[in-house]
Amino acid sequence: MSAALANQPPLRARADGISIRDVQMVYRRGVQTTTALAGCNLEIPAGSWVSLIGASGCGKSTLLRILSDIVQPTSGQALLGGLTPTEARAERRFALVSQHAVMLPWRKVLANVELGLEVARVPKAERRRRAEEAIEMVGLRGFERAYPSELSGGMRQRAAIARALTLKPAYLLMDEPFGALDELLRDRLNFELLRILEETKATLLLVTHSISEAIILSDKVVVMSPRPGRITQEIDIDFGHNRSPAIRDDPRFGRLESELRHALGHSMGDEHH
Ligand SMILES: Nc1ncnc2c1ncn2[C@@H]1O[C@H](COP(=O)(O)OP(=O)(O)OP(=O)(O)O)[C@@H](O)[C@H]1O
After folding, report:
1. Whose CA is nearest to atom 5 of ligand 1?
2. Could you say which of 12, 52, 155, 181 is the most buried, measured as most Cβ atoms within 10 Å of its Cβ?
């Protein structure tokens, strides 16, 4: 190996993470076109946690939808562990959790959590074991036989997270997972999610509108701006991975909050912030 190559960062680590390379997304509706993403580049190392934050319409959900193989970018490439989204989906490497938990109302919690495994044709006994493990992890033990209508919004969201976890995804893609919940519950689920991430070692890409949630749940916050959607800033959050609610009292927390507020003000083109 040449000296130049030996000095490169380890390729494997890079390949195991998420890579967004020159991704452009233009939606066409009749004669109207919208550039939802213009030349986005982002590297997310395996096992790290990244949040996307930015004004409405800056392309956050689009980026997640590209990674989860729902839409194809107009140009550029998105890779998860070196695989295209289509390949990663076939290998069930990622799970997507969105704002409103989709539950089948006629199925009990346990059966809803088992759904992904059923689709993956995992045998019944194994399905049950993994679903129970995931239910335990999100703190829903005792509610296995409840129907979704008997759960609170927060519990339904936990069930959706449990369903995602049963597939043991290397990549957890979350689009405003706690957006519909009240502040207190959101806070609690943030720290529960941190514990789950530490246990599963999953790589997290999270879309959020909350500055404090972004700080709590990230190693890096990526600020985006609209028209056309692009990445304007990447802010490192150096709290390490063993976080407790006490990080809010750390003076760095307040500094990061104001840094992010400022970055968001600029990304919206508001010079008064
Ligand atoms: N299917 C679609 N067809 C046409 N335009 C679309 C489509 N989906 C999104 N867009 C447009 O692309 C842009 C980016 O949308 P996207 O939903 O990715 O933004 P976002 O940052 O997630 O917004 P929000 O924070 O409001 O959820 C917006 O201008 C939106 O109107």
Report:
1. 27
2. 52
